[in-house]
Amino acid sequence: MIPQDVVKLPIAKHESDWRWQLKNMLRSEQDFASLINLTDREREAFQKTQGLFRTGATPYYAGLMDKSNPHCPIRRQTIPLPEECNTKSYEWNDPLGEEPRRAASSVVHKYPDRVLFLVVDRCAIYCRHCNRRRLVGGDAPPTRDEVEQGLEYIRRHGRIRDVLLSGGDPLLLSNKRLAYIIGELRKINHVEIIRIGTRLPVVCPMRIDEELCSILKENHPLYINTHFNHVKEITEETKRACNMLADAGVPLGNQTVLLRGINSSVQSLRALFRGLLAMRVKPYYLFQGDTVVGTDHLRTNVETAIDLMAGLRGYVTGMAMPHLAIDIPGGMGKVPIMKQYIVEQNEREVVLQNYRGVTVSYPQPELADATVPYDAVYFAGQPADDDSVPASDFGDAY
Ligand code: SF4
Q1: Through-space distance between the first and last CA atoms of the chain, rounded to whole angstroms
Q2: Nearest-atom index, ligand 1, CA of 197
Q3: 103 and 78 in a common domain
Q4: Closest atom, ligand 1, to C-alpha of 199
Q5: Considering the domain boundaries, does residue 381 fall inside one?
Q6: Which of 117, 134, 240, 279 is buried most, with the most CB atoms less than 10 Å from its CB?
Q7: pLDDT tens digits for 134-165?
Q8: pTM of the full predicted structure?
Q9: 130 C-alpha to center of ligand 1: Å?
Q10: Which residues line ligand 1 (CB under 6 A)?
Q11: In the chain, how many domains are there?
């Protein structure tokens, strides 16, 4: 069932133009004070965090804010708090170790078969939890030359099957520019899939229009990962945007960041993941917060995250269950974490505990050898799909 609290906003004609939304982004204390009743702490944070990390949101997204309640999840993701200045010794500017893995200035090559392609440095919101806050803001956008160098790197490395366009928000590029970059990637035979990571369906859903959808449709297989963090972000407008993308044949996934006091309750996560599925967006990841500077107050502890996921299992369909993961500091990759459902295990049986705490024995089969004889026929002559390829084939980052 679609959540009861789907927000319906009256959107004036000029407001439905995404360029108008970007041009009129709210950025300063005064801008936000004209819309909501800022608390003393929020006002203090605007002063204290100046120059640390920018603030900004589209009028559309800011319009979802609760004017008087500072706990509003939209408000908490947008308006700074003084805690952002309390940097901890274990926080990093680059928690995911992307800088040392820049294989070209616009390409991060961390995993063998896929790359991150940073094509823009602007966003339509500056999220308080952003793990790329060192880069985003529009101060040093990737130049055309840098994007060309990135394309060239991808052309030269035959094991890159998957290119994730990111930034910043790639859907802030003009249709012409986006079509050029995606089109160039599509010409590369070894690039099997293109993915786009974007928050625009959430914070500027009017960006999703017929022209954009037709560009995406011409370049399949192409996937989009959105970034909804709270059910309050699901509105008539976001539903329209996601449905248009789904109708254009774009498989939609969602990455949520677990944010303490914002979405860190079973009730909130169940409603979010159900709401996403109802608009054809598959919950893909629930991330434990990254250790990025100034965000300690937004992270939950790991035990809480595991308990929250356990509170979903069995109560929402498996389709609505994302992978709970930690992106290990230093760029060591994502690791799934979960409650242990195996109580005991031996050659004869595995004792499992279900979501209600009931333990049941699952008998093991007599034969344990799981070799697939036909693999040797079907995959004959193909190179090993593992890390045995020399590191030098992946560029200087390796
Ligand atoms: S939209 Fe993404 S990249 Fe931009 S500020 Fe938010 S989390 Fe960071």
Answers
A1: 48
A2: 2
A3: no
A4: 1
A5: no
A6: 117
A7: 999 878 899 999 999 999 999 999 999 999 99
A8: 0.93
A9: 5
A10: 123, 125-127, 130, 132, 136, 168-169, 199
A11: 2
